[in-house]
TrEMBL record:
Subcellular location: Cell membrane
GO cellular component: a single term: plasma membrane
Domain of life: Bacteria
Region (Disordered): 474-510
Residue intervals of the Polysaccharide chain length determinant N-terminal domain: 26-117
InterPro entries: Bact_polysacc_biosynth/exp, GNVR, LPS_length_determ_N, P-loop_NTPase
Domain spans labelled Tyrosine-protein kinase G-rich: 394-466
Membrane topology reported for the UniProt record: Multi-pass membrane protein
Organism expressing this protein natively: Bradyrhizobium sediminis
Molecular functions (GO terms): protein tyrosine kinase activity
Protein name in the entry: Exopolysaccharide transport family protein
Residue ranges that the Swiss-Prot or TrEMBL entry lists as coiled coil: 217-244, 306-354, 387-414
Major subcellular location class: membrane
Length: 762
């Protein structure tokens, strides 16, 4: 029998119970019974309070409320191009404008106009009439007299204060609708005041626009004469400066700039002519130095004189060749013909020399023309530099004139616009619902409602008094210490045969050693964000996004308890075999997986090499966290896998290797886990194997894992009743309950539950 005589977190004897029952809880059934026993007294108190409430309601003076609705659109009418005030376009700006207009409705200027129009200073309800006369009489007793003007002012201030208390301006959310709610003891007066306030607000809005336009026109007109004189002075200064510095030209450019541009163009043309003459002269000289035909240059070919001489030369050469073949070298005719050939050649050369001299003269003239243009251009450049220096001041004067002109024109145009706006009403506010005479009062409410409220208040007060009196009464019963027992399930008895009588034997109770209790508290863990993070290429199991043990001193109660549980599992394991610890639990979600990871981190902190295997076929929360992250273990143990797929153990930076699960049938996954444990035991390299699961309810494949487990650790959330949870676990374990070596009470993410008086919680 597994017995929990006292709470888990209480080491000493239980404190004696309080002497009064008020410290104990009370069930809903007991509360209902208590109230039912005193139903007559509760009903009587309710009826008495209902009658009293009706009597009080009858004695109250009724109030009537009238509501007038205004549409206050901040987007005013666009009657002219520009308005005096900018218009807000964003939603926040529009809402602020509407709220400002709602406050304007209750301003003194609007309410004083309403008082003047409706003569409220004479109304006794608003401090006028007899009330004002009584005040004047009271002041007269002390010898203080007030004049008629002061008396009227005093009446207006009293009426203004009273009217402020009678008005409630409400703005409907996300609309431009403003409700003006006015109450009065007279329904007709309430409707009249609501409509008067609406009309006064519209008149005040129009008046304020006209006043603003008139003030703007006056201010602008007063500045126009000064701006006009400033513009005239700036223009005179500009004209004088232009005349002094010879700034003459078109609107776009000066004459000096035009002359400089024309000189640049002429100089460029002269340079082109010089280059052309130089090229022609160089070509003729090159032809003469090459001893080529002097008449072969382009100018010679185009000359008719040279063409005629060359024709004669060719004819004489032909004749000379004929005579040479007929006559001897000393024949007079041949000598005469030879002299003609020489004369024609000399004439051609003389004509070519004239072309050379002409080209040289052209080159000289082009160079002299270019030099004269270059000299004139330098003079114009110096003049242009001087003009540029003077134009700095010119541009400054021009900017001054332009700025003065723009300001003057802007003021002149705006003055004319504001002058016309005085007679325009650009406000788009209007009355969309006039106040009507209310037919029902707003206070007090209906007598039936008052009676119901009085009855409920009286009944609640009587009920509270009854419960308080019952709980404050001394309790004469002796409190009994709570004792919860957890029994192992009893096997069903065999049915009696016809020859044997049926006997009821007592159910055998198995004695189970109470497991060690370990608390996983919020102060033991630290929470991280996101998924698993890598440090230098190696995943860190303490950064999976789950609550994990804090890095610090290893001397904590949870770490000590895990060391003891690990030692018990090691003693139960076979010799020279790696102990296997299975983590089970009844908690939903990731509670068990978080506890399993922290148990592995606690062992790794003591220098133990841990292999953490996901054995939860249903949820596989651990695998969902680590699948696809990190790298497979590169050592000789990296072949560890589950199933036929390449799901290898992931080695982390914390001394833990995590072996994810592969989706498949429950039996196939269980066989693969047992095979992985056998491989780890045969290969070595690990000091402890922790199974995350199997999950409850245990399947046949999950129960087979208990055969190879040396110890079982149950994870219980503190929100569960410990006795009920342990009973469920022991019942589900069947014959494997003797392997239960520890219980982890997890305070991580406790679920909100309704605790019962007869249950023991961790």
């Amino acid at each position: 029998m597994l017995v929990y005589d006292k709470p888990i977190d209480q080491a000493g004897p239980a404190a004696p119970p309080a002497p009064q029952r008020m410290l104990a809880g009370i069930s809903v059934l007991e509360l209902v019974r208590l109230l039912w026993r005193n139903k007559v007294a509760i009903a009587s108190a309710g009826l008495i309070c209902a009658v009293a409430a009706v009597m009080i309601g009858k004695s109250l003076t009724p109030k009537y409320s009238a509501i007038a609705q205004l549409y206050v659109d901040p987007r005013e009418l666009q009657l002219v191009e520009r308005e005096l005030t900018p218009r807000a376009q964003d939603v926040n700006g529009l809402a602020m404008l509407v709220e400002s207009q709602a406050r304007l409705i209750t301003s003194n200027s609007v309410l004083l106009q309403v008082i003047k129009d409706t003569k409220l200073d004479k109304d006794p309800e608003f401090g006028g009439g007899d009330a004002k006369g009584a005040l004047a009489t009271l002041l007269g007793l002390f010898g203080i007299g007030i004049g008629p003007a002061a008396d009227a002012k005093l009446g207006q201030m009293a009426a203004l204060e009273a009217l402020n208390r009678h008005i409630n301006v409400k703005k409907t959310d996300r609309t431009f609708i403003v409700d003006i709610d006015v109450w009065s003891y007279d329904p007709v007066k309430a409707a009249m005041l609501a409509n008067a306030i609406s009309n006064a607000y519209l008149a005040e809005s129009k008046k304020s626009q006209a006043t603003a336009a008139r003030r703007a026109t006056s201010d602008l007109s007063g500045r126009l004469k000064e701006l006009q004189e400033r513009l005239r002075t700036a223009e005179n200064a500009l004209a004088t400066y232009k005349a002094q510095n010879n700034f003459v030209g078109t609107q776009d450019t000066l004459i000096s700039d035009q002359q400089l541009s024309a000189s640049n163009q002429r100089l460029a043309a002269a340079r082109a002519l010089t280059l052309d003459a130089q090229a022609k002269y160089d070509q003729i000289e090159a032809s003469r130095r090459a001893s080529a035909d002097a008449g072969a240059i382009p100018e010679a070919l185009q000359s008719p004189t040279i063409a005629n001489l060359r024709s004669q030369y060719a004819e004489v050469r032909k004749r000379y060749a004929e005579l040479t073949s007929e006559l001897g070298p000393r024949h007079p005719s041949l000598r005469q013909m030879e002299k003609q050939v020489e004369d024609l050649r000399r004439n051609i050369n003389e004509e070519v020399d004239r072309f050379v001299q002409s080209a040289k003269n052209d080159l000289t003239r082009a160079r002299e023309y270019e030099a004269s243009l270059n000299k004139a251009l330098e003079a114009q450049k110096r003049q242009s530099v001087q003009m540029s220096q003077a134009s700095v001041r010119l541009r400054e004067l021009e900017r001054d004139v332009e700025a003065s002109r723009d300001v003057y024109q802007s003021f002149l145009k705006r003055s004319r616009e504001t002058e016309e706006q005085e007679s325009l009403n650009t406000s788009s506010a209007r009355i969309i619902g006039e106040a009507t005479v209310p037919q029902r009062r707003t206070f007090p409410p209906a007598m039936s409602m008052i009676a119901m409220i009085g009855f409920m208040m009286g009944a609640l007060a009587a009920s509270a008094w009854t419960v308080a009196a019952d709980r404050l009464a001394p309790d004469t019963t002796e409190p009994q210490p709570a004792r919860a027992e957890i029994k192992t399930p009893t096997p069903p008895s065999k049915p009696a045969t016809s020859n044997q009588p049926r006997q009821t034997a007592p159910a055998p109770v198995a004695s189970v050693e109470k497991p060690l209790i370990a608390r996983l508290q919020e102060s033991d863990v630290v929470r991280t964000l996101g998924g698993i993070l890598s440090l230098g290429g190696v995943p860190d199991a303490a950064r999976m996004g789950w609550p994990t043990l804090r890095a610090g001193s290893p001397q904590t109660a949870f770490l000590d308890a895990i060391r003891t549980i690990r030692g018990i599992a090691a003693r139960r394991s076979p010799a020279d075999a790696i102990p296997v610890l299975a983590v089970i639990g009844t908690g939903a979600g990731e509670d068990r997986s978080i506890a399993a990871l922290n148990i592995a981190l606690a062992a790794a902190r003591d220098g133990v090499s841990v292999l953490l295997i996901d054995a939860d076929h249903a949820m596989h929360a651990m695998s969902n966290r680590v699948n696809g992250l990190g790298k497979s273990e590169p050592s000789r143990l990296g072949w560890l896998s589950i199933g036929t797929k390449a799901s290898r153990a992931i080695k982390t930076a914390n001394g833990i290797s995590i072996l994810p699960i592969v989706k498949g049938s429950d039996a196939k996954t269980g066989d693969a886990i047992r095979k992985a444990i056998a491989q780890a035991r045969s290969a070595g390299g690990y000091d402890l194997v922790i199974l995350d699961g199997p999950a409850m309810p245990f399947s046949a494949a999950g129960r087979k894992l208990f055969d190879i487990a040396d110890g079982l650790v149950a994870v219980l959330p503190v929100s569960h009743d410990i006795n009920d949870a342990m009973e469920d676990i022991i019942t589900a374990l069947g014959g494997a309950e003797r392997k239960l070596t520890g219980v982890v009470l997890s305070e991580i993410h406790p679920a909100a539950v309704s605790r019962q008086r007869d249950k023991q919680y961790a």
